[in-house]
Design a protein that fits this description.
about 450 residues; two-stranded antiparallel sheet; two-stranded antiparallel ribbon; 18 helices
Length: about 450
């Protein structure tokens, strides 16, 4: 075995987040090869539809554009000569269609046209898979929000108990981010364009081959592929890639928001939440690790750096750049895979999520009633005056903590508070504000 012939391709050994996911298959080498061939075949069909190429040539190129007829490893190795895989692919495709139809292969295009278009095809196909998973995640989170609309739990700020909230509102917030991600991905997917500009973005070659209106070829080409027709060739106008990067990074972060909460609230000493089926440990049989949340959280940490590389390619020089579009290929694929894997893992995470209301209720009492001190300050001010209420609550809080006594019990001994419903005022479940109404409002969004 030589160094040029590896034992295996990247099987995802170090990438369990995307291994085996639909997105992995949709972004693999064969998927990209299929997209490259689809782009080449669509180009010939578009010209044939306008009378610029024989119908037989379109049929021949489409028939020859079969992934099984091409050696992807050979293409990869030969790509080193010209810097991209389109050059050897065009040579192989031209040979496959035969001498009669060879002149109509790749006519009027440049390598970047085919590479960019193929990347957009792969992105659209992968985004459809991601969106399907996001729909399931959204539905699961909506169910949790409805079922736990009034399930009180500690609200935490800067890691500490603040005031009570509800798990329904938390789940509704998770869902809102998922819907934001969905909307961004949909908008990006629907706007992804085909690329056809020729050597320097002027469409000159199409005119030289007899096209009276080269832009009509661009429109027909995009229609063949189901992509948007671009206003201009975008060889160095990388808005489509930048927008895609932003939407994907946002999606990873949106899913990571849920994962982060699950990881914190699923700690052994908290256990307000737990994954439906935890993962095992190699050394500790008792553990049920939150593997799905862990993988989603890992994706959220990696995605911004991949997106940054894609944003960096906006600074592309001349009419076609050296290195800028080449730098996009791998991080774009990694980002699609990463987000696809995260969306895949978010489905069982949210659908199987276990909520433990009893633990939430127990934790509301950890501060002996101090979690509702904000409410008490407001309610007791008319009775004791603002300064008096503050002084009383400060001292009562000190005693509740040092003496391990409920706040309500200490306050009950104050003569000024006779007749005040201290039991109700210090019940955390009765101080969740508009959490229920906010949850209902959030669930109205479709």
């Amino acid at each position: 075995m030589t160094p040029a012939e590896p034992a295996c391709t990247d099987a995802g050994l170090l990438a369990p987040g995307r291994a085996g996911s639909p997105a992995e298959s949709a972004t693999g080498d064969l998927a990209f090869l299929r997209a490259l061939l689809d782009a080449e075949a669509a180009l010939t069909r578009a010209q044939a539809s306008l009378g610029l190429a024989p119908a037989a040539a379109a049929d021949a190129v489409t028939g020859a554009a079969d992934v099984s007829r091409f050696d992807v490893r050979s293409l990869a190795l030969r790509a080193r000569t010209g810097g991209n895989p389109v050059i050897p692919l065009v040579a192989d495709l031209t040979a496959a269609v035969g001498a009669e139809h060879a002149p109509y292969v790749h006519r009027g295009a440049t390598s970047q046209d085919i590479m960019d278009t193929a990347a957009m095809l792969v992105a659209v196909r992968t985004l459809d898979l991601v969106l399907a998973d996001l729909a399931r995640v959204e539905a699961a989170l909506a169910r949790h929000a409805r079922e736990h609309r009034d399930t009180a739990m500690p609200g935490r700020t800067l890691t500490q108990h603040a005031v009570p909230t509800t798990f329904g509102l938390k789940a509704a917030g998770w869902r809102a981010l998922v819907l934001d991600a969905r909307d961004r991905l949909r908008a990006v997917r629907d706007a992804l364009p085909a690329q056809l500009g020729g050597a320097a973005g002027t469409l000159a070659a199409l005119g030289a081959y007899g096209a009276p209106d080269p832009t009509a070829v661009v429109e027909a080409y995009a229609a063949e592929l189901g992509l948007r027709a671009p206003e201009l060739p975008w060889h160095t106008l990388r808005t489509p890639v930048a927008d895609l990067a932003g939407a994907l990074a946002f999606t990873a972060g949106a899913l990571g928001r849920t994962a982060a909460d699950v990881l914190i609230l699923g700690r052994t000493e908290i256990r307000e939440l737990s994954e439906g089926t935890g993962g095992g440990s190699s050394a500790m049989p008792h553990k049920a690790n939150p593997v799905r949340a862990t993988l989603v959280a890992a994706a959220a940490r990696r995605a911004p750096q991949l997106a940054a590389t894609l944003y960096g390619s906006l600074a592309a020089e001349d009419e076609r750049p050296a290195g800028a579009w080449h730098a996009e290929w791998e991080p774009l694929r990694d980002l699609l895979r990463l987000v696809g894997g995260a969306a895949r893992d978010a489905v069982p995470l949210t659908e199987g999520l276990r909520v433990h209301p009893e633990a939430m209720r127990d934790h509301l009492g950890l501060t002996h009633g101090l979690i509702v001190s904000e409410r008490l300050s407001a309610e007791l001010a008319p009775v004791l005056g603002r300064a008096g209420a503050r002084h009383l609550l400060t001292e009562a809080a000190r005693r509740a903590t040092s003496e391990d006594v409920p706040l309500a019990e200490i306050l009950a001994g104050e003569p000024e508070l006779k007749g005040v419903d201290l039991t109700g005022l210090t019940d955390p479940a009765q101080y969740t504000g508009s959490a229920g109404a906010l949850t209902d409002r959030a669930l109205e969004r479709r």
